[in-house]
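Entry type: protein chain
Record version: 2
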Amino acid sequence: MNRNVLAIIRAKYNTLSSSQKVVADYVLNHSNEVMLYTLNELANACGVSETTVLRFLHKINYNSYQIFKISLTQELSKDTPNTVYEDVGLGDSVEQIMGKIISSTVSSINDSLEVIDSDAVEKFIEKIMSSKKILIIGVGASASIATDMYHKMIKLGLNVVYSNDPHLINILSMNLTPEDFMIVFSHSGESREVLDGVSRTIF
């Protein structure tokens, strides 16, 4: 199965370092040019070292620049339109801001079909249904998403516990058993509060 390079980059964007994000932004916004570049040319275009480009590729699960270019070329040869990745700028009009937000949202939904493994989703559902207790955690902006899932799951009659408080997360995590299941929400995957909770599970 061909990999959707641009979708993977967008999905992993927040796990990249600041210099790797420079490469990601360039690839997302100049993909047609990038597929013709050598490694050195891409590094120069981004104003970073070749090592940074290679580390960026490793973050999106590519061990070879040539394989990355082949995957990118295959993706761009499809008939589906490529969505330009753009952040909202200070000088943007209300119309431009609306357009960028809507475009980004639609792109994220489409990306989900490319980066989410249906087998993994099925296993996730099976784990939920077979667990004695489910703990849902999330802090900051991720807490609102975690709360939404909590509400939906208690409506299904499942035994669910939710917390966005770091202290309670630690206590609840320590009391989990092998029959329980923890669901963690984190935009970056690097939130210290939720990582501390995960590390406190005793099984």
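Comment: The longest strand covers residues 134-138.
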